[in-house]
Amino acid sequence: MVEKENSAMKIGNLSPNPKAKKRRKRVGRGGSSGYGGTSGRGTKGQKARSGGGVRRGFEGGQMPLQRRLPSRGFKRPVKVLEDWAVVNVGMLNRFRAQSEVGMEQFSEEGLIPRKVVKVKILGDGELKKALTVRAHKFSGSAQKKIETAGGKVEVI
After folding, report:
1. Three-class secondary structure of residue 142 per DSSP
2. Among residues 3, 125, 131, 132, which is most buried (max CB within 10 A)?
């Protein structure tokens, strides 16, 4: 057996393959270059002109796909921040009897978010305690239920 020379690949032995190096395409530099005259763009037409070509999604005048598909739903352009919060009469039973409740108490109990500006009391549920309720608006049924329970309604 003949021993082979140690031909392990080492970083010092590496060099680029001269055949693998590709020259840069120089267009419009004479006929003998292969890219002279029309510079590889063909003859005439939209794609041969400077600045020519079609936009993304263009289908040659055919109705484009994004316009052929049906539109679904509605997305409002600007989200309107809701500055009103709703509290039902039934939720007011968690407060002590004969106490005054308003915006601060509602947010402490987690009935309204902290960034809410105004509160409206609605008449869903039953109130079993007499409370003085301070809010920006009251529905007719809510006002009636609070006063029937012996409480007071104060509009801020």
Report:
1. helix
2. 131
